[in-house]
Every structure is written in C-alpha cells, then in structure tokens.
Amino acid sequence: MRLRLAAISVALLAVVAGAMPAAASSNQQTEPGKYYLSLGDSLAFGFQQATFNRIYPNERPDAFHTGYTNDFARLLKSARPGIKTVNYGCPGETTVSFINGPCPYPFALHNAYTQPSQLATALAFLGSHPNRVSPITIDLGSNDATHDLIEACPDPNTFVACVTARLPALLNKVGTNLATIVATLHAASPTSEIIVLDLYNPLAVSIPASDQFATFIDNTIKLAATSQGARVADVFPVFNPSGPAEVPTLCLLTAICTSLHDTHPTNAGYAAMALTLWQASGYTREDDD
Fold this sequence. Notes:
Blueprint: H1 2-19, E1 35-40, H2 42-45, H3 49-55, H4 68-77, E2 84-87, H5 95-100, H6 118-128, E3 133-139, H7 142-150, H8 159-188, E4 194-197, H9 210-226, E5 231-233, H10 236-239, H11 246-253, E6 254-255, E7 262-265, H12 267-281
Parallel strand pairs: 1-2, 1-3, 3-4, 4-5
Antiparallel strand pairs: 6-7
C-alpha cells in the first residue's frame, strides 16, 4: 500500500508541476510593509467552535481574536509598529471558492469582501495600495480535503482504499488552484512577500494512516507555493511530531480531543502557527539588532 501511494504521489506532483506557470522570483523583504494581508479559510479567520457556540446566534467576528492572524500581526508589529492588518479569511473557503466565490460562511467576516470572491477582493485591495502590502499569508486546502476525501470516505473500514482512489484528483485540484492564486497575487503586487501555510492533520488522533495522505497534500501545497516564489510555513511537524508525542501534541494544540471534536487550533495552536509564520518570514524584530 505504501509503495502504491508513493507512486501515486510522485505521478501527481509531476502532473501538477507541469501544469504550473513558471516560478516568479522570490522577493525577500527586510521588513513588513504598511499592511499585512491575511487570506484563507477558518484558520485565517481564527475560528474556534467553542467560541462560536458560546456567542451564537449573536455571531460577531471580533469574538474570534486569538487566531494566527492576530498573533502573527503582533509579531509583525515588533518589526514595524505601525503595520495594519486586513483579514479576509472565510470559514469554509476552498481553493475553488477562493477563486470564484462566494464565501460560504453566512456570518460577518473580519473584513468584508468588496468583490464576489476572496481573490478578487484581495486583488482590489492590492491595486488600491500599491507597494504597501507585505506580507500576504495564505492557508487553503483543508476544506478541499474535507469535502473530497473525508466526507466522501466516511467508512473507517474502507477509508484508506477510498482516499487512495480519490487522492490524485484532489492533489491536482489543490496544486493547480493554489499555484494560480499565488501567481495571480504575485503579479498584482510583485513587492509583496507571500507566505503559504501547509496543513496539520488532526485526524491522526483516530486514524494514524491519515498522516501519509496529509504529507502528500502538504507536498503539493509546498510545490505550488515555491514554484511561484512564495515561502512556506511548515506547521505539520509542529502539530504532528513523529512518534508517541503526536497525539498529546494534537490534543494540546487543537480541540480535537474535547467533547466538541473541533479540528481547529486552541489558542496555543494558533500561537504556534504564528510563530512558524514568523520563522518562515525571515523578518527580524527591532530589538534583535
């Protein structure tokens, strides 16, 4: 089974790489710009199921203030105190809805879309703030995997076989869409540093074999990002360390082990993601000099 999955992964990565446009040159910035633009899904938004349940039906975005976007913004302020954050993160966003819209979340966002899709809204913002936006962070792909693999393969007895059969199409979709997204953003704002987060795997708590599938997806994300000159924040080893520490770490950094079985990060998990972003950014704090 392992050799079969590896062969599928290599073949799909080759196909995805061949479909991608040529890589843009990496634009390493020595410090952040005037604006930090956060793009992506519920992780960019900072969603936590416990918070949502506590305030529903009076849902308000300012209740979700412990996400990685918030934590990373605080780190960025140590390098540029006046930086402002714009967060278009949409819970439930896939690579497809990011490009085409609409946002599937029926409640208010931190910053509302001004265009039909998150990508079009981001492009409009970049166009109205030339050379003033850096970094741009992106997290996408987890909802694609949820829809195309997890929801489509609910039987644990056939999970591995079902996911193996469906994995190639998912890798092709996520890789092609994400490469297009990064290339489009880079073309609209060549001076922006773009950092893409890969995925952690909360399902490893109950399905250890799922780590191998998550690795294939993460390799696709990394290839799509780096082929377009973006950096990668590798959160997988932070949340999913190898060996016996994996499950306790997931229980600490996500709410998967609570009664809610929430796959979203805890406050500690979001802080860990922000630190990983900071390390990937290459920025230095003013007090590091």
